[in-house]
Input
Amino acid sequence: MSSIITHEILYEILTREKTRQELQKIDPEFLQQLSSYLDEKELILKSQREKDSFPEEIKKTEKQLRTIRQLANEIIERRKHKILDLALLNSRTSSNIPKNLLPKEEELYNSIISSLEIFSSNEKEKSQKQQEEDETKALKNENNETTLIRFINPVPKFVGTDVNIYGPFSKEDIANLPEKTAAILISKKRAEKIQ
Output
């Protein structure tokens, strides 16, 4: 099957991809057609070499082949960048699959979206674990911070703010209690802080 791709068509596709932000509509069979076109050019070059054609003809065909490959690579790279940008944007907004993707590009897009979802999920889990660890650490620090107090009135057994049981305490007893528990006892005039 002869491809409908030409040097001019490749240049036109590349120009549209360069000058427009969105993915450009191209034939769904573009990659197969491109592959056929390259195969044809390589066969021509091989034939020229075997027939000992004029060196100028061989050089001209080699140059055409190089140019075609460069154009094709640039088209594919530009489209990949656009697909990556769309996937990054759509992973945050849960948008539909973009238009004008070739079948292979749709596979790439879905693969990127899937990877981004897994990454986001892992990051959320890490963030939640970190938050839980921070809260636990804060609670431990809160429970570790103590205040030295002297009881100025007798106090029966009680449950402190850290859910531990303290007491009973007699007048003039000294205790090192969690900061919040000590603050409550001081505010109720049951104890005084020792400086």
Observations:
- The CA atoms of residues 25 and 111 lie 21 Å apart.
- The radius of gyration is 37 Å.
